[in-house]
Write a structure and sequence with these properties.
Strands 1, 2, 3, 4 and 5 form a five-stranded mixed sheet that branches. A three-stranded parallel sheet has the order 6-7-8. With about 220 residues, it is of the alpha/beta class. The chain contains four helices and twelve strands; from the N terminus they run E-E-E-E-E-E-H-E-H-E-H-E-E-E-E-H.
Length: about 220
């Protein structure tokens, strides 16, 4: 991320420096080559040349950049659960994430922690921001969202194959040689590929597909 060049002064505002001290009336902020050179009363600010860029806060508040601790760059106009990740194709979602990054910066968020993004978009969004391809806050990327079985994201249609990277569970059978399976391959605690349907707790009984297995299951219960 490139640093700004030259001098920038923000004046005529109530200054909050973020240290807990009372706000400073008629405060000023001086930024030189992308770094804060002075913050405090306008009367004590060092003299600057005529080529300095000046922003009039018009009596507003001058404060440090905000930090968004839970940011989903790929969420856009969410009205229903399916809007989280299957409303738009990944190409369009990538573009929307850049719009959200710019919006966050314009709202005063200079740093953000991603809470997860569809298709690892936030990882590449972070790179694009740092390489000055798009404007956005300093971003701590999290990658693809992860959930447990029955969690928030455990509802996607199988054709999206979301379960392969979202959550894994162990088969639960001692003789199983496959340590983990994609979520959509599992039904209850048994691995359908390795052993076929297996009996579970009485409150969640497996339903074998053939009559022979049904009889054997009935004799065990």
């Amino acid at each position: 991320m490139k640093m700004g060049q030259g001098k920038l002064v923000v004046t005529n505002g109530n200054l909050i420096d973020g240290t807990g001290k009372p706000a400073v009336a008629n405060g000023a902020l001086l930024i030189q080559d992308g770094r804060i050179a002075y913050v405090g009363p306008a009367a004590d600010m060092p003299t600057v040349g005529p080529d300095t860029c000046t922003i009039d806060a018009r009596g507003g508040t001058i404060l440090p950049g905000l930090v968004e601790a839970h940011f989903h760059a790929t969420y856009f106009n969410i009205a229903a659960l399916e809007d989280l990740d299957i409303k738009y194709p990944v190409e369009y979602v990538s573009l929307l994430s850049s719009v959200n990054a710019r919006l966050a910066l314009e709202c005063g968020y200079t740093s953000a922690r991603s809470g997860g993004c569809l298709f690892n978009i936030d990882v590449w969004l972070k790179n694009a921001i740092e390489e000055d391809l798009i404007p956005g806050p300093r971003l701590a990327a999290s990658g693809r969202e992860i959930c447990s079985a029955g969690g928030l994201m455990d509802w996607n249609p199988e054709f999206r194959r979301m379960g392969q990277n979202l959550s894994h569970r162990r088969c639960g059978l001692p003789r199983c040689q496959r340590p983990s399976h994609p979520l959509h391959d599992l039904r209850g605690d048994a691995c359908g590929r390795c052993h076929g349907p297996q009996p579970q707790a009485k409150s969640h009984r497996a339903l074998p597909s053939d009559r022979g297995n049904q009889k054997r299951l009935a004799s065990r219960l």
